[in-house]
Specification:
Length: 338
Amino acid sequence: MSRTLKSTPLSLSSPSFSSPFSLKTYAAPHSTLSFKPQKSKAAHTNICNKSPLYSTKRFTSPQNMLDNTSSSSSTRQNRWNLHGRTALVTGGTRGIGRAIVEELVGFGARVHTCCRNGSELDKCLEDWNDVCSGGMISGSVCDVSVGAQRQELMETVSSIFGGKLNILVNNVGTNIRKPMVEFTPEEFSTLMTTNFESAFHISQLAYPLLKASGEGSVVFTSSVSGFVSLKSMSVHGVTKGAINQLTKNLACEWAKDNIRSNAVAPWYIKTSMVEQVLSNKSYLEEVYDRTPLRRLGEATEVSALVAFLCLPASSYITGQIICIDGGMSVNGFFPSHG
């Protein structure tokens, strides 16, 4: 099953700026200091002399300036596109995951995604096919909480992309909301396996493909629950805290192979996953009160950051967990009255 999204390369350009600096001299009226004055004629009037402060290279013809601008524009375009790159996005048929798939394809990447529900996957592929053709998006059915299926997924990805993978987005996650003391062993295992073990194992399996690509980027979907305490989300927070630490460890461990590792940590985003809890108007108002921007996030606001972390433009960013939360995680006591 594969489909294509056609995209237009992002073109950014801006004028070049020159910042000439001037030479200043300072007098120090101290009896123990003595400065031998320089002849000003050679230093300041002859712009073609051999002084390292002055060089004819600083002065270029109009044609050279145009050539340099064209070269700069080309370099800038390369920083802001993913043409020729490959990506795996787990859980890419709804919510944040779907937004990530579409964002990466929009920047020119070929994307493979997966989900547990075959009919849901087929519907997404059909929707994507309505706006594209070819092999830009492919998909397979996979329950990432099952080890054997994770192995099969990565074999499929390796086959489709010729043994190389530039981008891995570990997006799958779930939640069970209840007080910590009420968790059963089975529920605890479900969250740990789905949220953390799956991402850990898929990253292991993807490592040879990421290394073979010569330039890899791993992005984990974490949560603000990995930073701050949220009601009835103690186990969820544990899994996301583990994701945060894994993000940092891989950034250091895989840097030698030119593989970067980062994570995004959303607060409440408008997706089907949070529809039920936010249907309570009083609860929703409390969410707004806790969020300085006083609104929910959009899935595209998360996908935009994920895409940036995969672009060459972010090539010096690794080991970072970035909150997308409207300011919630940095909000202390900021009352509206008083």
